[in-house]
C-alpha cells in the first residue's frame, strides 16, 4: 500500500522552557490576540497630532545598553523615561530604524495607502516603528512609585515627576537605532522626543546562518547568512576547518518590490528596511548522515561561532529518517510586553520544542511549508525571524515552500490577486531561502531523503493543467522509483481540504479540480479528519516498511493525534 497524504500543513505553535529570558515567559499569553489587525499594525494610518509638551516639560529619555554607546548583535536594552508630570496609560515608546527615519506626518502621501482599507484617519506617519511598548508595562509608572523632585520651595517639593523603565529585545539589523516617546496611544499618536542614534557595534557581522539541501545525494549543503558587508566571505568546515568555500553575494532593493500604478505597497515604502547582503556558499565533499563543524564570515567582518550540523541520509537509502513539518509559523517578540507588526504568538514555544528535539539528535530535516516570517512588506521582520530559527536552521537542512504571505500581490502573476505579501512578491523569500527550485519565481522542487520522495509545490503559482508547474508535477511524480523511495509526500502551503467540525471541506475548488487527480494517479492521498486548535508541529518517522506521523503539542510536548502507514508484504511498487 504505497499511499500517503497531501501534507498541506497548517499547524501552529508557544513556550515551556526555563532556558528562555524571563521577559519571554508570558509572550504567548500576552500576544494571543495580536495576529489579527491591531491598533499598532494600523499605526501608519493615524493622524499625528501635537503633544502638549507644556504638560510634561521635564521629560527625558535614556537608552541603556550593555556596550553603552552601541548595540550588540543581540541584547535586551532598557529605556528609561524620566520627568513625566502626568503619567498616562497612552504613553508609549518605539524602536525606530534607521535613526533618520521620518516619523512626522505625511499628508502628501494620503492617496498611496488605499489598500489598507483604513481611510478614516489620514494623514499618517511616514515610517513604521520596528516595535513599541506602553510605559504602563512598568507596574510602577501609573502609580508614580518612581519619583523625582524637579523644584523645591524650602524643604517642600512643589514639582514632582514620575519615571518608567521598559525593555526591548534588539538584534543586529545593521542600521542604527533611535528610541522615540509618543503620547496618545496607537490610535492618536503624538511625538514627545527622540533619543540619540545608537549604532550596532559591528553592523557587518555575519549572522543568522541557515542550511538547505541541494539534492538527494546529501553530499553537499548550502549555507546562507546575512551581513552588512557586500564583499565575499567564507564558510570554513571539515575536521579542522581546512575546507573553505567563498560566498556568492546577493541582495534586493525597493525597486524589486511590487506595487500598483496608484497604490504603494508597504515593502516599497514605509515598511522598507535595507536587507544588507545575503551570502551563500555550498559545502561539498560531505558524507550522508555525518556531523560536521563549521563557521562563516571573514577576518575583516568577524566570524560566527563554531557550529555543528548533520547531513541528512541520502535518498533511496534504507536509513531511518526523522523529520519535522509545519506551516504558518512567523515569529513573536522575545520581550513579552512589546508589540510588532505581525505576531504569531505560538512561534516561540514551537521553536523551543523543535530545538529540544534537534539538540537531542532526533531530527534529520525540517520542512516549513509556507507563510515563513509574515514580514508582509515590513522587511526588518525577516531579520527577527532568521534570528528565531537559527538554533534549528543552523544544525540541519531547513527546507521551505512559498506561501501567500511571501508571494501574493495584485497584478504580480500570483494565482490569487491579494495583497498578502505586502508587496514582497517572493523576492525576499527566494533570496533568503535558496531552495533547489526550477528557476527564478518558479519555487517548486523535489528532493529525496532516505525512503521519502518529497514533491514540494507552490500553491501561489499557476497550477492549472498544462501549466509549467503542472507539467513538472506530472513528470516528477512519474519519475519516483517506489523500490528506492516507497513514500511520496506531496507538500504545498494551501490545503485542498480543511476539517471543520470534523468534516473534510474543500478549500479551493479550482485547486482540487486541477491538481488533485494528478497526485491520486500516483497514489498520493490525503483526508482531513481531525482538527486540533493548538500550537504544534508534525513529527514524522519513515523506514522502508513504515511511515508514522504525529501532531505534537508544543506547550506540553504531548502527541495530540497520530497515524501510521505500514507497507503490506505483498505490495508491488508502482
Automatic annotation (TrEMBL):
Its main location: secreted. Gene3D superfamilies: 3.60.21.10, Purple acid phosphatase-like, N-terminal. Residues 72-202 form the Purple acid phosphatase Fn3-like domain. Its EC number is 3.1.3.2. The keyword Secreted applies. It is found in: Secreted. Residues 209-311 form the Purple acid phosphatase N-terminal domain. SUPFAM superfamilies: Metallo-dependent phosphatases (SSF56300), Purple acid phosphatase, N-terminal domain (SSF49363). Residues 322-502 form the Calcineurin-like phosphoesterase domain. It catalyses: a phosphate monoester + H2O = an alcohol + phosphate. Its cofactor is Fe cation. Belongs to the metallophosphoesterase superfamily. Purple acid phosphatase family. Homodimer. This is Purple acid phosphatase. It comes from Cucumis melo. The gene is LOC103483017.
